[in-house]
Amino acid sequence: LGACRIHSDIESAKHVAEYILELEPQNATAFVLLSNAYAAASKWDDKEKVRKLMDGRGLTKQLGCTWIEVKNQVHFFVMDDTLHPNNRIP
Is residue 73 classed as helix, strand or coil in its secondary structure? Predict the structure, then answer.
């Protein structure tokens, strides 16, 4: 689906997403990537339909996360995380 977005191949993106959702109906990632493909192609109404369908199924996008190692200590961050001891956001 990511490649479909990059190459603006919306028809393939729809087919791939349908196939994934047949196999895994609760796969939020397929909805998110299809929505991103529509957005990249400026198909805003289609993007909104996909997100509403996702919301209607009670699916949510997983929060982004990352980790880094500094001086042999691993630091893990999640989007909107304000709990890290070195957080500088008030």
Answer: strand
